[in-house]
User: Fold these one by one.
Assistant:
Number 1:
Amino acid sequence: MRPVEIRPDIFWVGVNDRSTELFEGLWPIHDIGVSYNSYLIRDEKTALVDLSKETFTEDFIEQVAELVDLNKIDYIIINHMEPDHTGVLQRIRKLVPNAVFVGMGKAIEMMKDFYGVTENVKVVKHEEMLSLGKFTLKFLFTPLLHWPETMMTYVGEEKLIFTCDGFGGFGSLNSSIFDDDYEDLSLYEGEMLRYYTNIVAAFNRNVVLALDKVAPYPIEVIAPSHGIIWRKNPQRPIELYKKWIAYGNGEADPGVTVLYGSMYRNTERAMDQVLEEFAKANVPVEVFNVSGVHPSYMLPSLWSKRGLIVACPTYERAMFPSMVHALDIAEIKKVKNKVAAYFGSYAWSGGAKAVFDGYAERLEWDAVGGLEFVGQSKENDIAQIRELVRAVAQKSS
Ligand code: FEO
């Protein structure tokens, strides 16, 4: 895509990434892509806001060069040092040696550690301002959204805020960069939640603080560094964030996430009874096979729904490894305060339930119980599984 003017003299100069399989080497984006949004402000002084991933160096430089002679860039605002936004930094330094990099706190150390850049660097503090001429930038310190150095940049004259990872989402920008050009935003909002749970959720408390810092400023445009720009309804991403923050603090939607894995279908065969009980209780359910689905896709459900069923066999006196992987990711992302139960088959020795109990304790789940059964589930096992499911359903509706 070519540069797009988002306000007079303020341009999107981002790139779409449709070739990376795993964002951060972890999160699948092969089918949806992602955008790295950067912005150029043309004024008496010219500023670039955020950069791009190294793979896209040539595309990025081409975008910027279409609008301005690179030598005319005075400031490069580094809202966040993660290399999806700074991978082109060394190349830009060579092309524009006199431009001043502007960042907060640890960004300065990181510029040195990541790219060996120590000169022409300006350290700014929370609410410090930088005049470009007709526009004045104001920097807001929003640490851990998503790294410790992260800040946002507010342009008061346009009531516009560059939020970097904040309010960002997966999904390349297919036909437009603006919210008002899409009739249905469910795809981008869904990918925004996946991004939130995959990338940001572990720092939920810091997101609350970041929203508090942004709250006093009137906002007409939210311009993140991934995903769409919100100008028709800039309150929408803020409302979504407030809802998702609340999930991290114990609020939850009615419903249950069912994670299951099975080696020879002994655990899987009990699944029909599980789903039947939830249907009877009228509790919405999302089901994921941990052997085939990446945890990235489970996290939005885990984050937002009240209940959790963990169904998998014991594997060599411990838990089925694919389930351990899913639950490890849930633990890293602080999926707390669930009503949960475990069941699963074993061949000669149990062990998975003890592993489940460990997750439940560390993540402060209300564990209503668990059942290990040998081989195929018998009538008595099924009755106990139904009992567990009813207990989870009752607390998840
Ligand atoms: Fe988009 Fe935390 O980088």
Note: The longest helix spans residues 379-396.
Number 2:
Amino acid sequence: MGFSTDAIHAGQAPDPQTGAVVLPLVQSTTFAQEAPGQPKKYEYGRTGNPTREALEANIAALEQGRYGFAFASGMAATAAVCHLLRPGDHVIATANLYGGTYRYFEQVMRQFGLSFSYADTSNLEAIEDQLRPSTRMLFVETPTNPLLILSDIRALAGFCRENGLLLVVDNTFLSPYFQRPLTLGADIVIHSSTKYIGGHSDIIGGLVVVREAMLAEQLAFYQNAAGAVPSPYDCWLTLRSVKTLALRMRQHDANARTIATFLHGHPAVRKVYYPGLKNHPQYRLARRQQKDPAGRPGFGGMISLELENEEKARLFLSRLRIFTLAESLGAVESLVCHPATMTHASIPPAEREKIGLSDSLVRLSIGIEDVEDLLEDLRQALDGL
Ligand code: P1T
């Protein structure tokens, strides 16, 4: 089936009992058993729920995986994946990660005997330099939050196969509409479905998709044992959101391309980070790796820009009218954020400096409003800076 057909139908046949076209929302926390220890299909809502199961089947179809798992947040999804590891295991992660992921690795998982090294995962040699006998996992964000650096998933998958590592890709920034890491050889895909998949800034959620039955078994066990599951209502809302994912992603991408070009030509902007600009160092990789289901290149809706200094960045933020100053991204409305003091504040300043995340960096999440209005808002905020 095509992507949009799957987005609308996968996991959601009309209800056999009532004919309801929209998947019924099953809020029940428990399910009647025919005899002790003999449930019909579901027994307890943490273990399994029909609404959650539909979402899990849906995301598995969109990512072209076999098994999907829904969690209460993107961080809970990342935690589930980390629990595939054992004390003593070593992880190599992209140097520029979402700040919360870095915090979870450094301040939570380290306490349990895991160790983490950070590398520029766009460079295989830099990864190789970090490789140890105990390395078990390569954890990659591509494009990265907020610097939009890409890693070549297919090349990394080959490296991981040779070295016996699991390749995990956080696909939050593009959604399965523009990037399907499992088809490029990744083992595990993670989403903060709070972002593009939810798309309306009203659901916190996380998703994991795999192909291998062994990984699926461990994730299912952990999901039930640790219990960071989303509510059935959040799953139902997410399913509703996914139905328009293709339409929304096309508009995010179209608006962002126009805006990135405008920003690139504005004298107050020192640098624009957007993989769809020809001067992005990985423009060719972006065209090859990031594609809509019909094979057309897609760059997504995230843009970062460097202003002259932090003071100008703050002034710019205060002048914007349509762009709302807030954390998060990927929703229909445009947002703006100052990563150094907001989403990436949990990364120590020295580490931020190392990866090039400066105090004058501003991140835009381009929404699907009329692009002329967004351009006008940016123009009035930048002019005379
Ligand atoms: O917020 P949560 O649903 O728990 O997802 C965490 C997460 C994971 N991965 C990436 C790439 C992310 O960007 C996030 C969350 N990011 C933000 C809240 C933000 O504004 O960048």
Note: Residues 245-382 form a domain with the Aspartate Aminotransferase, domain 1 fold (CATH 3.90.1150.10).
